[in-house]
Amino acid sequence: MVNTYGKKVSALSVPERLLLGPGPSNSHPLVLQALANQPVGHLDPYYIDLMAEVQALLRHVWQTENRLTLPMSGTGSAAMEATIANIVEPGDTVLVGIKGYFGNRLADMASRYQAKVQTIEKSWGEVFSIEELEQALNNYRPSVLALVHAETSTGVCQPMDGVGDLCRKYNCLLVLDTVTSLGSVPVFLDQWKVDLAYSCSQKGLSCPPGLGPFTMNKRAEEKLKNRKGKVPNWYLDVSLLNKYWGSDRVYHHTAPVNMNFGIRESLRLLIDEGLENSWKRHIKNANLLWSGLEKLGLELHVDEAYRLPTLTTVKIPDGVDGKAFSLHLLNSFGVEIGGGLGELAGKVWRIGLMGYNSKKENVDKILNLFDTELSRFKS
Ligand SMILES: *Cc1c(COP(=O)(O)O)cnc(C)c1O
User: Does ligand 1 lie within 6 Å of residue 179's CB atom?
Assistant: First the structure.
């Protein structure tokens, strides 16, 4: 036999990192402990009880009573695709609000499911006003409006007051990306009249990447039930998945059992802290970061009224090589921060304080690094 690898395989040795970028964020140590259990069977009565707990805990953090609430096997993008795949039929008009990278991804996905995609756009760092949304709904009369609540590429939080009522008035479903808000920024899904939403495990929930929480309400279920054809994605078809997550308990795919141990532990920790306490902790630490950066003479990209507590965009000062600076933080200190995407490429750094990582000692650490290290990168 030929050893195609060509040498002895060394044991895994993962470097220690403090993940203060756009995600993943560090996991809570108790979540890591939960993951380290032996798996149980995916139809084991113990596991079936655990599934129901995960669903109930997710309903709480989303503030929803939606029956169809479950973690998709896959990352946030899988759950994003699940929202589109289940309710978009060929020829449906889908209106996507694009004010950053993830709006573009939603539009791309909707087009792959043969939607007629219409877009409303804002520059990266701004939000949509209710008037702008109403005008677009009136113009395009879509069957779906898709918005990103917390735009991780820009650090903006879209205000949701009145948006759900507008969608009911114009008879369309509202899809909301809560990937960087769930658990760390107030989200009131039912009160906001959001019809479908999704998130991920690795940002505000302090878990490794691998699960994509998904939820849909009765209005969305109705659209799914009345489809003319099958959902054009077998893996993400909620009508099939619900035969496993609902009372039938029919095999669909082998659940990533350990990831569900992990998310159950992360949701337990979140509810133990208190959802509102978590929201308060995130805004408190974000405020410390914002004032600290400004004290160092740095400028923030987003207007304070729309700033996202979980993700801060900081303008890279003139003459500084932003990439070289973040690489220096990673190589010399094991601290990861992100760079800009799209319109903001080369213009901003992105600093994340999400879930387990939103704590004062991390704010102090990153501020201290900006204070002592940045001057070496100024020309
Ligand atoms: C991270 C992110 C996603 C995608 O999630 P993955 O887990 O990377 O697949 C979608 N939307 C937003 C706003 C995100 O920040």
Answer: yes
| Whether 368 contacts 333, CB under 8 Å | no
Structure tokens at 85: 């795949």
CA distances from 116 to 89, 169, 225, 331 (A): 10, 21, 21, 46
pLDDT for 2 equals: 79
| pLDDT confidence of residue 185 | 98
Domain identity same for 350 and 225: no
- Residue 209: give the domain boundaries: 29-271
Read off the pLDDT of residues 226-257 as tens digits, 9 standing for 90 and up.
999 999 999 999 999 999 999 899 999 999 99
pLDDT at 46: 98
Q: What is the pTM of this model?
A: 0.97
CB neighbour list of residue 346: distance below 8 Å, 6 or more residues apart: 316, 322, 323, 339, 340
Q: Out of 102, 185, 259, 344, give the residue to mutate to test ligand 1, the one with the largest number of ligand atoms within 8 Å of its CB.
A: 102
CATH of the domain at 196: 3.40.640.10
In this structure, the answer to whether residues 286 and 311 fall within a common structural domain is: yes
pLDDT of residue 147: 98
Mark 166-180 as b/e (b = at least 16 C-beta within 10 Å). Answer: bbeebebbbbbbbbb
Task: Kindly state if the Cβ of 58 falls inside 6 Å of ligand 1.
Answer: no
